[in-house]
């Protein structure tokens, strides 16, 4: 097992009067792709937002590369080469695809300063980003917007990529393209944490898995083992993979 790049220890999160996370323990191995699964309302998105400092943990510890990041704000966390793609994707609809990408390229003040070799690699992962480079992002389809959201997150090298439900609402062909892209990202050395509801997506990509229920991690282990254990799937998720 690889060393853990990201760990959560006993993390509690309150949103107003609501106690959402109830002592989350989670380990994300370096260089692997970890799936975070669970029923709707289990606390998956809250876990991601807590990691990113968008919501502050009220108790417990979040560590990245051995550093305590629990009390850092979101810009400080992003500067550690952690990228986050929310379920909403966060696309700037009135800007072009190029302008969306440039906003995320912190080392470039204009498009010509972006890393050409990296852009070429991103275009190979997501051809629609190149095809619609000068088009308003708001005119893209849902699948194309999701590709842009992930492309924007990796426009500069990232050590950890966190993505919330990348396959939601996408056509099967787009999902297959997304699976191929994440597989290539993992092969390039990026550590990835995905929240996902598409079980086939999870089964094909995941190295490790954590399953949440009622604000806690109730199972953690190998994705392959979960995929092969129908009784465990039924117990944890109420379905069979």
UniProtKB/TrEMBL annotation:
Statement: the UniProt record of this protein carries the keyword Repressor:
no
Pfam families membership: ABC_tran (PF00005)
GO MF: ATP binding; ATP hydrolysis activity; branched-chain amino acid transmembrane transporter activity
Q: Does the keyword Cell membrane apply?
A: yes
Identify the keywords attached in UniProt to this record, alphabetized: Amino-acid transport, ATP-binding, Cell membrane, Membrane, Nucleotide-binding, Transport
Quote the CDD domains the UniProt record gives: ABC_TM1139_LivF_branched
Gene Ontology BP terms: L-amino acid transport
**What residue stretches are annotated with the ABC transporter domain?**
6-239
Q: Its family?
A: Belongs to the ABC transporter superfamily.
Quote the protein name from its UniProt record. ABC transporter ATP-binding protein
